[in-house]
Amino acid sequence: MMIHVKLIANYREALPPEAKNGVVELDVPDGTTVYEAISRFDIPLDDTSVIVLNGLTVDMSTPLKEGDMVTAFSAIAGG
Amino acid sequence: MYGWHLRILRVNLTSHKVTTEDVDPKIARDYLGGRGWAIHYLYKEMDPMADPLSPDNILIFATGPLTATPAPTGNRYMVVTKSPLTGALAHSNSGGEFPTWMKRTGFDMFIFEGKSSEPVYVFVNEDQIEVRSAAHVWGKDVHETTDILKAETSADARVACIGQAGENLALMAAIMNDKHRAAARSGVGAVMGSKNLKAVVAMGKKNPKLYDSAKMISLSVDTSKNVGADVKKGSNMRIYGTSYVPQVTNTLGILPTRNFLQGTFEGVNNIDGDALKNQYLIRHTPCYRCPLSCGRLTEVPDGPYKGKGEGPEYETISSLGTGCGVSNLAALVKANYLCNEYGMDTITTGMTIAAAMEMYEKGYISEEIIGMPLKFGDHDAMIEMIRKMAYREGFGNDLAQGSYRLAEKYGHPEIAVTTRKQEFPGYDPRGSQGMGLLYATSNKGASHMEGDVAYEEVFGVPVKENPLTTEGKPELVKHFEDSFALMDSSGLCVFVAIRYAFNKDRMILPQRLAEMMNFSTGAGYTPEEALKAAERVYNLERMFLLKAGSTEDTLPHRMLHEPLPDGPAKGKVVELDKMLPEFYKLRGWDEKGVPTKEKLEELGLPL
Ligand code: SF4
């Protein structure tokens, strides 16, 4: 199934060159979890990252559905 | 004494009489400094019912015990006064260099009273204090004023001043320092203008004496190293400043778009941190002694929006940009420069124009009244409105009153997205419930700087909270409000303090904040005592607010009754009544939000 991964700001360096505006499309096996999808990228997966599914706070073991968007950014204060 | 000078400079602008006075060390310790000291004096000396633009208002500039010390980001001051925008308390924070230079005059705090009959500026070089004519800079913008006053005083001086917006008493006028830094919110610049005080120019060599200077230096170096290590890893704050945030809030569906009609913006890629970095960034610019350096010097090299200056920060992008539906980055950058030059708060400026755009599109305000069409996304009209606001020219006079008064005047109060008449910053609380409680209860009206729980709900610092739930939010809001009162009183910048001063249990790391205060002042705070003092400050501010007659803790119509139509928070409103009673209980306030006798006694505050 096809899903999207979006990386924001400094994490964009971990994206492949075909990514556009920080978003890359991936073909993943059914049952792939948020964690598995985001582990494909070289970003820290500890509490220095914030990872959301379709903009929502979810458990990292949540299985993905066709068309889902997983977004990650570095947990640093701002605004 | 250490850390604090324990000296105040008082300038009566009516008589031009200058006096100095000492601060009682017990008051100094109990109220921390900065914002804490300022509310102590404001509460003691002024009638909270006074007209904010009358000579009866008092304008306070206050540094903290870490300002002008080796502490990284110890570069802040607070401007505290009664706000003409909200009728409530104003406390606006700024960094740059002026606050450090101000503290080096040998005074922790400047108090301005009364009103000068002619435009003046106040020059303070340690004990040489002069009230001088400002006739030659009246009418000039912030940049020109700063250059002229530095040229006629000293290259070693630093300047805080108002632009045309402050002179003309526009209610979103800011006090700008070092040209680009702003004590922005709540119309503090209009208070300065009402006193005919164009500028304050400060210089001196009196660094505060430190209680334990060796330990202070080693702790400061250690904290700087921590920040430095993060910067090396690629900190967004260094690479982008806060301009990376629109992508984050857009992802969560809480990016204020078209006056909060939406929570996501289709043009976000045109105006985000990467666009800014790739097109207009020259270099990052730090406040004094800041290892993070989140400021941006930018330049639009040519075309109709040609200019050079600082910004935009996130809050400007989310107000003048997405708030107005504007996706032309060059125009947005230009709008930011204009606000800095006229001396205006970009949040209230942008969101007031956004409200006018909505009212125009809905047919509530005609083209004839405005003088031109004013559709969302019309960046040229937006730029023209900024100029009109600063000069209060034509429809600009309506805009200069802020969105609450604008919407009320034209018969549609539901359009204004404000609390206590102050415009919301860049987090739609329908998708960030804790921010909703914060905006509703904030003693200064809607402001993220009152206790920015977006750190947890949005950015995961120090821990990640689900922004859509209400559970635990009252406690979170109280904790952040008290923590911000502590940081604003200390003289540190919250960007660094929040990240390095708290652990995952939200406790102050003693070695990072209480100890820093102690190495500076010798006051011997435990972390608990420091937070208790911050709670004292917060409660006294509440008392001022109540006496000023602004009591109801609520949110505007849109936030309570119009569900977000798009994005991850679609269908949500702020569930304020689920949070407010528990918040009052945690605060030790009654069901109307009034501190109980027991709470006041516990904090040693006057009944
Ligand atoms: S983090 Fe930014 S705002 Fe804070 S002191 Fe540093 S440069 Fe200034």
Explain this structure to me?
- The complex is a heterodimer of chains A (79) and B (607).
- Chain A has one domain: Beta-grasp domain (Ubiquitin-like (UB roll), Roll), CATH 3.10.20.
- Chain A is 6% helix and 28% strand.
- Chain A contains one helix and four strands; from the N terminus they run ββαββ.
- Chain B is α+β, with helices and mostly antiparallel strands.
- In chain B, 41% of the residues lie in helices and 14% in strands.
- A six-stranded mixed β-sheet of chain B has the order 2-1-6-3-4-5, sandwiched between helices.
- The longest helix of chain B is centred in the middle third of the chain and has 22 residues, at 213-234.
- Chain B is globular and about 60 Å long.
- At the A-B interface, strand 3 and strand 4 of A face helix 8, helix 9 and helix 21 of B.
- The structure holds iron/sulfur cluster.
Strand arrangement within the widest β-sheet of chain B reads: 2-1-6-3-4-5
Total E-strand runs of chain A: 4
Task: Estimate nothing, just give the exact number of structural domains of chain A.
Answer: 1
Write down the CATH class of chain A: Alpha Beta
Main β-sheet of chain B: number of strands, strand sense, barrel status? 6 strands, mixed
Tell me the CATH superfamily of chain A. Beta-grasp domain
Shape call of chain B: globular
**Helix segment count of chain B?**
26
List SSEs of chain A in N-to-C order.
Answer: EEHEE
Structural category of chain A: mainly beta
Beta content of chain B comes to 5-15%
Q: How many domains comprise the coordinates of chain B?
A: 3
Q: In the CATH hierarchy, what is the architecture of the largest domain in chain B at level 2?
A: 4-Layer Sandwich
- Unreliable residue stretches of chain A: none
Radius of gyration of chain B: 22 Å
**Percent range of helical residues of chain B:** 40-55%
Name given to the CATH architecture of chain A: Roll
Radius of gyration based on Cα positions of chain A: 12 Å
Distance between the termini of chain B: 30 Å
Relative helix content of chain A: under 10%
CATH domain class of the largest domain in chain B: Alpha Beta
